[in-house]
Amino acid sequence: MFAFLIKRLAQAIVVMFVISIISFSIQDNLGDPLRELVGQSVSEEERQALRDELGLNDPFLERYLRFAENAVQGDLGTSYFFKEPALQVILAKLPATLDLVFGATIIIIGFSVPLGVYAAIKPRSLLSKLVMGFSTVGISIPVFLTAIGLIYLFSIELGWMPSYGRGEAGHIFGWDTAFATTDGLIHLVLPCITLASIMLPLFIRLIRSEMMEVLQSEYVKFARAKGLSPTRIYFLHALKNTMLPVITVGGVQIGTMVAYTILTETVFQWPGMGFLFLEAVNRVDTPLIVAYLIVVGAIFVITNTIVDLIYGLVNPTVKLFGGK
Amino acid sequence: MALLDVKNLEVSFGLRSGAVKALRDINFSLERGERIGVVGESGAGKSVLGFSILNLISQPGRISAGDVRFEGKSLQNLNDKDMRTIRGNRIAMIFQDPMMTLNPVLTIGDQMIECLLAHRQISKAAARKIALQKLMQVQIPSPETRLDQYPHELSGGMRQRIVIAIGLLMDPDLIIADEPTTALDVTIQAEIMELMLELCERNNVALILITHDLGVVSQVTQRTMVMYAGRVIEQGPTNEIINDAQHPYTQGLINALPQMGVRGERLQQIRGSMPSLQAIPKGCAFSNRCDYASERCRVIPEFTRSGGCLVACHMVEELVAQSENKAQDGGA
Ligand SMILES: Nc1ncnc2c1ncn2[C@@H]1O[C@H](COP(=O)(O)OP(=O)(O)O)[C@@H](O)[C@H]1O
Ligand SMILES: [Mg+2]
After folding, report:
1. Is B251 exposed, middle or buried (0-12, 13-18, 19+ CB in 10 A)?
2. Which residues share a beta bridge with B312?
């Protein structure tokens, strides 16, 4: 367990270091903070004086170290637009984005496991062929098309679901989430389906191909020779082994999904981090952009850690807690 | 009534290029407690034979003709549910590579107990007790600990003992062991084989021992079948086959054995290799590698009785006919 934590921590530091360099370079090159701070009437000399005073003319390394020092203390600068600490602005929008990611993850797991397993067990059945055909086509449909199609069908034509916004959010264990209210849930359906649709085909294919390989293995043959029921063979012996690579790949994908929320949130005007990020880009609100990148990096590190923990629990050959 | 009766068994694999027959005309029967060896080069169809008895041939294979009878009942017509009451219960199977046979993500205990629970209405605790007993029978040190371990924590030899213990869980009438020692260290092979022999003898369990090692067959089995390209080409009492093989292929196998060949003579490999199922020569499948092949070998040989053996070879048929004629002449 200790070795595992050290490894994780080292990885987190590397990831955060890379992100901080990127973020800082962006901040350094994007727009002119002076323009945001002072009006047009200030003369060039006064500007230079102000730059010196703010340390904007110091060497790159010095400026980066100063940035990093503040960042480590949670200070990522003040949003030009909101006039509030950038990190605070971003974190306020985090729950809305996590709603989407969580909802989409549930949809992905809920559909990909049964469909992938079914397609592996009965590769020749009509349903399997439909599922596989659908997932082939699905992989190549752009997200915004899915979103527009869903909005057209369910919001405009049928009028079942709202086409934008988060609705009314409630609280579960003090956490702000749209899952807490019916109104929130209704608002969640379309964006979550859209977000899930990006990864679902990939997961179905992955689970199917892993499962088919596992079904050829000697230990599955041996399980059959022991006279076990197909249910036990498929859903214990085979599925548990199938899920090992799926968990690894899936963890990375769910991390990536956070990035995809930018598109989904924009289409559905979902008040999350991604939506805020696009606005920040438009307003050249660099502290906010930097804060977003760093929060996303942190989420990535955290999901990877959780995934590693789950993997370790499922796979007995990985020793998380002590051992050899 | 024989325990197992295999009649005219034929197994086909439906490949894209057409169906190929991996087994043809297999006939043999096995009495209670009897041990039979199945030998032949790799690709001869030995494993397919083992799996076909339990109706577990991998796709796209199927039994295309013939019948397997167990205690007089045909296993062919059983539905999957009834077949499962045979598998692991009356007929157990032991696989070649113990590194691959056990599920890596389940404990040894889980993998033993589930087998008992699949066949018997007993509690988990009772099943655990039986599992423990069987682990002791296969001489595993500190069996209690093993139950909670995962396969990767054990050595190859230890794992094969566990696989054998799983095979014994339901006190089966027949064990099919498919090259049970091939994947193991040479030093452990003899130990495992001895253990299997002892367990079969003590519990009066019949054994089908699949191997390409004639030496092992001679130590363990009473009868032997020699397979070549999907057919049995010679079968009979093991000592006759080892000491006085009739078929040129069997002779070739024996000459290739270090301890069996005549002292001082060079070991002889059979020239060439076994053809793939698609490229079997017309007539006798061995004819293209046989030193005695001639015109007559273009026709598939029938079985000839020679001593206690059945041999599918034209040359042997002629030799037997000649000696019979001599005997008749001498008698007249
Ligand atoms: N899954 C399969 N698909 C197609 N052909 C197969 C399959 N399994 C076995 N065969 C055919 O059956 C032949 C015999 O295989 P096998 O019984 O495994 O030989 P061995 O005597 O080495 O155990 C192989 O040479 C191959 O042509
Ligand atoms: Mg084999």
Report:
1. middle
2. B303
Q: Express each pLDDT in A279-320 by its tens digit.
A: 988 888 888 888 898 888 888 888 888 888 888 888 888 766
Nearest alpha-carbon partner for B269 in B253, B292, B246 = B253
Q: For residue A217, which residues of chain B lie inside 8 Å, CB to CB?
A: 100
Predicted confidence band of residue A35 (pLDDT cuts 50, 70, 90): low
User: How sure is the predictor about A53, in pLDDT bands with cuts at 50, 70 and 90?
Assistant: confident
pLDDT given at position B304 = 93
Distance in Å, CA B185 to ligand 2 centroid: 18
Assigned token pair, A85:
């600490």
Distance, in angstroms, between A93 CA and closest chain B CA? Answer: 40
**Residues of chain B where predicted confidence (pLDDT) is lower than 70:** 259-267, 331-332
Q: Is residue B143 within 8 Å of B134, Cβ to Cβ?
A: no
Mean pLDDT of A174-198: 83
Establish, for the pair of chains A and B, how many residue pairs have beta carbons separated by less than 8 Å. Answer: 77
Check residue A36 and give its pLDDT: 61
Q: For residues B102 and A26, what is the distance between their CA atoms, to the nearest angstrom?
A: 54
Residue A155 burial (10 A CB sphere; 0-12, 13-18, 19+): middle
What pLDDT sits at residue B24? 95
pLDDT for the residue numbered A324: 39
How buried is residue A137: exposed, middle or buried, by Cβ count under 10 Å (0-12/13-18/19+)? exposed
Interface test with A, best of B48, B114, B154 (most A CBs within 10 A): B114
The answer, yes or no, to whether residue A82 has pLDDT greater than 80, is: yes
Q: How far apart are CA A264 and CA A272, in angstroms?
A: 10
| B52 close to B66: Cβ distance less than 8 angstroms | no
Q: Is A223 exposed, middle or buried (0-12, 13-18, 19+ CB in 10 A)?
A: buried
Q: How far apart are CA A87 and CA B240, in angstroms?
A: 87
3-state secondary structure of B309: strand
Burial profile B134-161: b = 16 or more Cβ within 10 angstroms, e = fewer: bbebbebeebeebbebbbebbeebbbbb
B203 φ, ψ (degrees, to nearest 5): -100, 10
Question: Which chain B residue is nearest to residue A316, measuring alpha carbons?
Answer: B105
Please state, in angstroms and rounded to a whole number, the distance separating the CA atoms of residues A203 and A200.
Answer: 5
Residue A51 has a pLDDT of 74
Helices marked H in chain B: 46-53, 80-86, 98-101, 108-119, 124-137, 143-147, 156-168, 186-203, 214-220, 238-243, 248-255, 314-331
CB atoms within 10 A of CB A119: 24
Q: Which of B251, B224, B228, B250 is nearest to B237 (CA)?
A: B224
Residue B87 DSSP label? B
* Residue B101 to residue A218, Cβ atoms within 8 A: yes
d(CA A172, CA A282): 34
In contact, A204 and A119? CB cutoff 8 Å: yes
User: Are B117 and B124 within 8 A, CB to CB?
Assistant: yes
> Is the pLDDT reported for residue A16 higher than 90?
no
